[in-house]
Specification:
Helix content: 40-55%
Shape: globular
Radius of gyration: 26 Å
Strand content: 5-15%
Structural class: mainly alpha
Oligomer: single chain
Largest sheet: 2 strands, antiparallel
Distance between the termini: 30 Å
C-alpha cells in the first residue's frame, strides 16, 4: 500500500492501513504494528457531558485522521461565547441549526469523496472488494471498524458497525459502485453527533468518565484534536486509569509538536482572538488596515505567546513585560518599524524604553478592543478587567448618552481622557467607568489599530493610571504592575480549568481551582506545567455535577435519518 504521489501519511492513516491489513490477512506496514482495537459488543456508557467541536477542532480532526491534503470547505455554525466566558464553555450548550447541518452534510460528502477517491483509498482501505460494482460486507466492515475508532474516538459497537455496513450496501446498490457505498457510510459517520460532539460517558465506578472519554479530554486539551493511536491504545488497556500510564501519555503529548496547536487554541479562546477575523476599521482613518493585516495581528500574538509559554517555557506573568515578538513587512508598516525579511516573519526585540511591551502592546489586543474609527479606553479597560483578570464589568444602561464622548472633533475636549472626564460627571456612568478607564486610558498612546502616537487632535496624551493602589505611566508600566499581581495568574488558572472541562467556575469540582493555583505558583507560573497539572488531576476526569440534558442525548444512536439518497 504505497502512498499516492509520495503523500506523507499521518499516524492515524498508517494505523488504519496497518490494522485493516492485519484484519484481512494482508501485509502489514512496518510502522503500523499496533494491536487492533475492533468493535465492541457493549454499548458506550451513560453520556454525562457533550460539547460541540469548534471549527478548529473539526479541521484538525479531519487532517489528523485522513491527512492534511483532505480539503474541508464550508461554513460552520458559530458557537456563541457566553458573556464573560469562553467559547469552550459555550460549546457545552451549542446546538446545530438545520442550515448548519446541511453545511456539515455537504462537508462530510466532500471529505468522504476525497478519502475514497482513487488517489487516497489505498491509504485507508487495505482490502479490495470481490466485485467493485457491488457491496462487500467484509471489506466494508473492516473499514468502518477502524475508521470509526478515530472518528468516534472509541471502538464502534457491533450494532454501529452493522448500521454503517448497511448504509454502504444501500449506497452501492443504485450506484453499482462499492466505493460510492463506502462514501455514503463515511459521510453518514461524519454527520453523526458522535463525531460532531465531544461526548463523554461515565465509567463503571460512576465517579469518573471512562477511558475513551479520558483520551478525548486529553487530546482536545493538549492538541485541540482527536486522540492518536498510542493514546487510544492506552485507553483500551486501562493505562489512563493508572497514575504511571496517565503521566506517560501526558508527557508524550506535551513533547509533541502538536502541543503548539493546543496552545494556540487555548489562547485564541482566552484572548478572544477568534474575533480578529471580523474586525472592521474605517479605511479613511486607518488606510493601511486590511484583512491581511488583521490576520497578521492575530498571528503575531500567537507567535509571541507560543514562543514565550511553550518554546521558551517562561513564566506566564512575563508575557505582560516581554520585549520579544515577531514582525513581518505588513506589520512593520503599521508599527513603523523596519523589517529585514521581504517575506515571512522575523524575531524582533523592542527597545528597553519602548512603551510597547507584552500583551498590552500587541496590535491584536489594541485593535480588537477599539472602535472602527478610533481607540476606546473603555473597551480596552473592560477587556483588561474581563479577559485578563476575570472580573466581569456590568453592561452600560441602554439610555446612556455617548454623544459627548464620541465628539472627537471637539475643539476644547481634544483627548479621550478629557471627553471621558466630562462624560463621567453622570453618576450612572461613573461607577463602571471608574473600573475600566484607569486601565484603558494608559493605552491611549496607541490608536485604533495599535500604531503609536503621542498626541490626539494635537493635544498631548496623558497615559497615567492606577492599578491595585499603585500609579504608573504608560502601557509598559501597566504591564509591569500586572506581572506583579496575583490577578492575571488566578484568572489564567480559572480559564484553563474551564477550557479543559467545558464547565463554568461554579460547576468545577470544589477546591480544584485553589489546588491548581497553588501548583501553578509553586511551579513558577509555567503554562505548560499548569496544563500538565490539570491533565494529571483526578478532578479533571470527575463526572460533572450536572449531566448533559437528556433531550440532547436521546437521539445519538445511528439511524436512517443520518443517511440520504446518494447524489
Amino acid at each position: 500500500m504505497s502512498s499516492p504521489h509520495g503523500r506523507r501519511r499521518t499516524a492515524a492513516g498508517l494505523a488504519i492501513a496497518g490494522v485493516l491489513a492485519s484484519l484481512l490477512g494482508c501485509s502489514t506496514p512496518r510502522d503500523a504494528a499496533a494491536p487492533a482495537l475492533v468493535a465492541s459488543a457493549e454499548a458506550p456508557g451513560r453520556i454525562v457531558a457533550m460539547r460541540r467541536l469548534t471549527e478548529a477542532q473539526y479541521r484538525n480532526a479531519i487532517a489528523d485522521i485522513f491527512g492534511a491534503d483532505i480539503k474541508v470547505g464550508g461554513r460552520f455554525d458559530p458557537i456563541v461565547r457566553p458573556e464573560h466566558e469562553l467559547i469552550a464553555t459555550g460549546a457545552a450548550e451549542s446546538t446545530i441549526s438545520p442550515a448548519g447541518f446541511e453545511q456539515f452534510d455537504t462537508m462530510a460528502r466532500t471529505i468522504a469523496a476525497q478519502v475514497l477517491d482513487e488517489q487516497h483509498r489505498a491509504t485507508f482501505l487495505a482490502c479490495a472488494p470481490a466485485d467493485a460494482a457491488q457491496a462487500d460486507a467484509a471489506c466494508a466492515r473492516a473499514f468502518f471498524q477502524e475508521v470509526g475508532l478515530y472518528v468516534f474516538r472509541r471502538p464502534l459497537t457491533a450494532a454501529e458497525v452493522d448500521f454503517y455496513v448497511g448504509v454502504a450496501a444501500r449506497g452501492a446498490e443504485p450506484t453499482r459502485d462499492f466505493y460510492k457505498g463506502l462514501e455514503l457510510g463515511l459521510a453518514s459517520m461524519l454527520v453523526s453527533p458522535q463525531f460532531l460532539y465531544q461526548l463523554e460517558t461515565a465509567a463503571a465506578d460512576g465517579r469518573q468518565i471512562d477511558s475513551w472519554s479520558k483520551a478525548s479530554r486529553l487530546s482536545f486539551l493538549i492538541w485541540n484534536s482527536v486522540p492518536d493511536r498510542p493514546l487510544l491504545t492506552a485507553a483500551s488497556r486501562g493505562d489512563l486509569d493508572t497514575a504511571k500510564g496517565l503521566q506517560a501519555q501526558v508527557e508524550r503529548m506535551l513533547a509533541s509538536p502538536k502541543a503548539e496547536q493546543g496552545v494556540r487554541a487555548f489562547f485564541t479562546d482566552f484572548l478572544h482572538l477568534d474575533r480578529v477575523a471580523d474586525l472592521s476599521k474605517d479605511t479613511v482613518v486607518y488606510n493601511r488596515f486590511t484583512p491581511a493585516v488583521a490576520a497578521d495581528l492575530k498571528e503575531q500574538m500567537l507567535l509571541t505567546v507560543v514562543d514565550h509559554v511553550l518554546t521558551q517555557d517562561k513564566p506566564y506573568p512575563e508575557l505582560f513585560t516581554t520585549r520579544k515578538t515577531f514582525l513581518n513587512r505588513r506589520l512593520g508598516l503599521v508599527y513603523r518599524t523596519p523589517v529585514g525579511k521581504a517575506e515571512g516573519w522575523e524575531p524582533h526585540e523592542l527597545p528597553a524604553d519602548d512603551e510597547r511591551a507584552g500583551i498590552l502592546g500587541q496590535g491584536a489586543f489594541l485593535a480588537l478592543f477599539s472602535h472602527e474609527g478610533r481607540s476606546s479606553p473603555t473597551l480596552r479597560g473592560r477587556a483588561i478587567r474581563e479577559v485578563l483578570l476575570c472580573q466581569p464589568v456590568p453592561n452600560p444602561p441602554a439610555n446612556v448618552d455617548f454623544s459627548g464622548f464620541n465628539d472627537t472633533s471637539n475643539a476644547v475636549l481634544k483627548t479621550a481622557r478629557q471627553r471621558l472626564d466630562r462624560h463621567n460627571t453622570d453618576p450612572v456612568c461613573a461607577s463602571c467607568h471608574k473600573i475600566t478607564d484607569p486601565l484603558g486610558l494608559p493605552l491611549e498612546r496607541f490608536d485604533g489599530v495599535g500604531a503609536f502616537r503621542k498626541t490626539e487632535n494635537g493635544a498631548p496624551i496623558d497615559a497615567s493610571g492606577a492599578f491595585e493602589g499603585k500609579t504608573f505611566d504608560g502601557a509598559a508600566s501597566l504591564g509591569y504592575l500586572m506581572a506583579q499581581s496575583k490577578g492575571p495568574t488566578d484568572c489564567l488558572t480559572k480559564r484553563v480549568a474551564e477550557y479543559s472541562t467545558g464547565l463554568t467556575e461554579d460547576k468545577l469540582p470544589k477546591g480544584w481551582l485553589e489546588a491548581l493555583g497553588q501548583g501553578f505558583e509553586a511551579g513558577g507560573f509555567k503554562y505548560r506545567a499548569l496544563v500538565e497539572k490539570v491533565a494529571l488531576s483526578p478532578e479533571f476526569f470527575a463526572l460533572p455535577e450536572v449531566a448533559a440534558p437528556a433531550a440532547r442525548v436521546a437521539a445519538l444512536s445511528p439511524s436512517a435519518a443520518q443517511t440520504k439518497e446518494v447524489r
